Amino acid sequence: MTESYGAAFVVRWMEAAAGAVEREAGRLTELDSAIGDADHGANLRRGFAAVAEELAKEPPGTPGAVLVTAGRLLISTVGGASGPLYGTLLRRAGKELGEAGEVTRDGLARALAAGVAAVGQLGGAAPGDKTMLDALTPAVAALPESFAAARAAADAGAAATVPLRARKGRAGYLGERSVGHQDPGATSSALLFAALEEVAAG
Amino acid sequence: MSGERVGIVLVSHSAAVATAVAELARGLAGGGDPAPLAVAGGTPDGGLGTSSELIAAAARSVDAGAGVAVLVDLGSAVLTVKALLAEGDGLPERTLLVDAPFVEGAVAALVTAGTGADLEAVAAAASEAYAYRKV
User: Fold this and answer.
1) pLDDT score for A107
2) What CATH number does the domain containing A115 carry?
3) ipTM
4) Domains in chain A: how many in total?
5) Residues of B with Cβ-Cβ distance to A72 under 8 angstroms
6) Nearest chain A Cα distance for residue B33, angstroms
7) How confident is the model over A161-170, as pLDDT tens digits?
8) Where is the PTS EIIA type-4 domain (chain B) (predicted)?
């Protein structure tokens, strides 16, 4: 039987993501100070804290609505490029889920794939550009297999950004000097899938 | 034609940059009040960054019914306005993200809006600033 997941599961995912971002904010900012403007950890922490607070106050009734709410809050609270990017990822995925009360892992993978495509369109980036897409794209592709496979693919994708040369955002101006550093956005994307696996494991 | 002028919003990571470019544009447009112009600079706490709340508030403040042209500097300013437009709420109905260099585009947009031109003409004038080669 195919397991399906309701709004409460997605709320727990967002709470776990907020916890992971809180724990790892220092590392994200450290990575971002190497090739970015050293605000990724603080920005995401502010955004996901706002998401967790709002979802605790007034949890929406469907998985899609939870993701749309989370996405909208990230856009309005983060203050850096990761806000509209993560916001678009979650909001688009939420819209794909529509009004359904429950979602299967396959359904979630399809919705997140639409979200990832929207992120690529918004930022004009593709896999290999040393961005969050390098973790998100393989993670979403592996999600139909299992939550653990998605997490492993995200981690591997983030690690694989180290030798890449950045082509987007502020790091793109660094050219060759961006080589040798792990991308902060790919790293935080991997946290999102670690949180998903954690919540799915119960 | 409603007779109303197009509103202009300048979005920068820095409040100082947004305010200074607005002053420059007003000055080069001949002073006075050529068209509604508002800035969304930095974050609400005074830091560098982009605030969707400041952008939405600025856009609403200059919306007189003829549309709002938004000029942005870079990175999250571009992405935030695009994400707000995709969301379909928060910004006035006829809000356009203008593809233009920030300083030159601001001057061109304000001067053109001051002539009573429509939103498309204001956007086109700002975008044309890309065509002016300096070397």
Assistant:
1) 98
2) 1.25.40.340
3) 0.87
4) 1
5) 87
6) 31
7) 999 999 988 8
8) 5-135
